[in-house]
Design brief:
The protein has 148 residues and is an alpha+beta fold. The chain is built from six helices and five strands. The strands form two sheets. The protein has a three-stranded antiparallel β-sheet with strand order 3-5-4. The protein has a two-stranded antiparallel sheet with strand order 1-2.
């Protein structure tokens, strides 16, 4: 384990001399790789598969929220990939995996957003007027952009 030595600015009230040797703290850093560092290729492959299931590509990086929600292939893919997601992402605090309804328990769209955010994608949402199922109203258009 790697050690980092830092000096503390806090001085003890009982020690009035100018000797700062007592204020040195040793801070241990993590030797283990994070899941983001460890599973780079697996994450890229997973994002490519998810893009193909959702319908995103190099030319088309936007999709309506209701298209994702109504697409049964997306739901099936996410449910089938559950163990894989837990293996390559640090997903313990994501709303999809909590027991609280308020945090989004079981919300597939929330899980998809968390996956893309964790893979350094920026997700922009915008209301657009469009027509689906002969109903014309405002729908949320989600745009996925890879951060530089």
């Amino acid at each position: 384990m790697e050690d980092i030595v830092t000096k503390s600015n806090v001085q003890d009230n009982n020690d009035n001399n100018d000797n700062n040797d007592d204020n040195i703290k040793i801070k241990r850093t993590r030797n283990r790789l994070t899941k983001k560092q460890q599973f780079v290729k697996e994450r890229e492959e997973f994002i490519k598969e998810l893009n193909s299931v959702i319908g995103l590509s190099e030319k088309r990086n936007s999709i309506f929220k209701n298209e994702i929600e109504k697409n049964e292939n997306v739901t099936k893919f996410i449910i089938d990939s559950d163990e894989r997601i837990k293996q390559i992402f640090k997903a313990g605090n994501w709303g999809y995996y909590t027991n609280e309804e308020i945090r989004g328990k079981g919300n597939i769209l929330g899980l998809i957003r968390s996956i893309y955010n964790d893979c350094d994608y920026e997700i922009n949402s915008k209301l657009k007027t469009s027509e689906f199922d002969n109903i014309k109203k405002q729908y949320t258009l989600m745009t996925f952009v890879k951060k530089a």
